[in-house]
Design a protein that fits this description.
CATH topology: Trna Endonuclease, Chain: A, domain 1
GO molecular function: nucleic acid binding
Shape: globular
Order of helices and strands: HEEEHEE
Structural class: alpha+beta
Distance between the termini: 35 Å
Pfam family, one: UPF0102
Largest sheet: 5 strands, mixed
Oligomer: single chain
Protein name: UPF0102 protein DWU89_18040
Number of helices: 2
CATH architecture: 3-Layer(aba) Sandwich
Family: Belongs to the UPF0102 family.
InterPro entries: Restrct_endonuc-II-like, tRNA_endonuc-like_dom_sf, UPF0102_YraN-like
């Protein structure tokens, strides 16, 4: 379990650096509200970007983005709604996924913009 947590933390650090190199401003990382969490909250071009980071080693069976299922999407959207309300923001919100695959000492990164939308209630 500790190795898995370490891989996830490494992946989030790699994703932060990637976003910063692409002119995103990181606002929060690992923002918690009750038992919900947002991996990365960033700003770019007047838009709030909520980024879910999925990290895998190169021997994965399931593509990282496939781990973001409907239940996970609902939790992310709920947390993002709480975030917007907590900070009293009036900005458009976009949901992205960054996948990080660790291959030896290197990382393969894929940034999926507008990966999903908030479901209608």
């Amino acid at each position: 379990m500790a190795k898995r947590n370490e891989t996830g933390k490494d992946g989030e650090a790699v994703a932060r650096v990637f976003l910063e190199k692409h002119d995103y401003t990181i606002v929060h990382t690992n923002w918690h509200w009750h038992h919900y969490e947002l991996d990365i909250v960033a700003m770019k071009d007047g838009e709030l970007v909520v980024v879910e980071v999925k990290t895998r080693s190169d021997d994965y069976l399931l593509a990282p983005e496939e781990a973001v299922d409907n239940g996970k999407i609902r939790r992310i959207v709920t947390a993002a709604d709480a975030y917007v309300r907590f900070f009293n923001l009036e900005l458009p919100v976009r949901f992205d996924i960054i996948t990080v695959i660790k291959k030896g000492g290197d990382y393969e990164i894929d940034h999926i913009e507008d990966a999903f939308y908030a479901p209608c209630r």
